[in-house]
Amino acid sequence: MTSPINTLWERAGQAVKPRPAGHAVKPRPGAAAARRPPAVLRGSSWLPWMFLAPALLFAAVFKFIPMVEGIRMSLYKVQPFLGNEWVGLQNYATVLTDQRFLDALGHTLVLGVGQTVGALVVGFGLALLLEGQARSLWVLRTAVFLPVVTAVAVIGEVWRILYFPTDAGFVNQILATFGLGPFSFLSSPDSALGSVMAVGIWSGAPYDMVIILAGLAGIDRTLYEAAAVDGVNRRQRLRHIVLPGLRPALTVVLTLAAIRGLRIFTEVYVLTGGGPAGSTEVWMTRVYSLGFERNDLGVASAASMLLLFVTALLTIAVRLITRRREA
Are 252 and 265 in contact (CB under 8 A)? Predict the structure, then answer.
């Protein structure tokens, strides 16, 4: 007589007995259907667009539709309540022959080049000083990066107070300890543009620093070790290892800085409003004064389209030069 225990052992052996070759395991009913996604999601090419729809809607309403409207308005003499009058390219000719626009273009280029070069040099120095993995460096990086996340209007108002053109001004008090000043800063046509440029460098350098830090992190550390073994000094290491390794990051920095320099508006508007005597008037402040103070929306739209064209042309040129160097 077989005992219950032997019977259990025999059943267990039969349960783990290997199946013969070619024997297919029949799935449980409904198991495959449970693993498959719903039919409405299988092979749906429109699913990514569904997630992109909110961003595309905002971009269309607040960017692309106004851009198309600006192109249309640049071809008309805009007359609210009287009907727009077609003038073709006359608005563009007005912009290109207006002396104030030409002066504003010169100020824009000076500010753009000065802020781009200054912010790049300061940001590069900050990146070299703050490179590393220490926790204290993360705190310092956060403190240095604060001007980037602060509203530009707030920065302009703070610096306008710091630039107060008397002995009671904060910057003049610091300079007085070195026997300098007081300076007029924003009140003098000779120093206003340089003062605005200094604010742009101060607020733009931390942004460049972050991009350069990312580029420094991508440089192979073994190159530093090999250079140390070969007795390379710091200047040679900077020239032959760091700068070539930072070429992609520097390209991004220069492109963004150039675009930011051409579109500068808020700092100038808050600090000087384009004065004194038009010495700090830039392209965008001139567009603002024409469009919202003189209601000459057609000429203002034409000036905006010219700025858009120059910005796009500059971006494409930088990308072509970068690809040619990489090739």
Answer: no
d(CA 56, CA 64): 10
Whats the size of the chain, residue-wise?
327
Pick the closest to residue 208 from 159, 241, 252 (CA basis).
252
pLDDT band at 291 (very low <50, low <70, confident <90, very high): confident
DSSP tag of 279: T
Q: Which residue has the tokens 């390219």?
A: 89
pLDDT reported for residue 16:
47
| Segment 150-174, tens digit of pLDDT | 888 899 999 999 998 888 889 999 9
**Using alpha carbons only, what angle is made at residue 200 by residues 118 and 108, rounded to the nearest 5 degrees?**
90
Q: How big is the CA angle at 264 (ends 146 and 71), to the nearest 5 degrees?
A: 130
CA distance 43 to 33: 16
CB 282 within 8 A of CB 112: no
pTM of the predicted protein model: 0.77
Angle subtended by helix axes 247-262 and 192-217, to nearest 10: 150
CA-CA-CA-CA torsion sign (85, 88, 90, 96): positive
- Contact criterion met (CB below 8 Å) for 40 and 260: no
Q: What are phi and psi of 85, to 5 degrees?
A: -115, 125
DSSP 106: H
Tokens 């992190």: give the residue.
Answer: 217
The answer to whether 299 touches 94, Cβ cutoff 8 Å, is yes
DSSP 8-state class, residue 281: -
How far apart (Å, rounded) are the C-alpha atoms in residues 2 and 153?
93
Confidence tier at 10 by pLDDT (50, 70, 90): low
Query: What is the rounded distance in angstroms from the CA atom of residue 298 to the CA atom of residue 271?
Result: 27
Token duo for residue 249: 């990051």
Question: Could you tell me if 245 and 218 are in contact, meaning their C-beta atoms sit under 8 angstroms apart?
Answer: yes
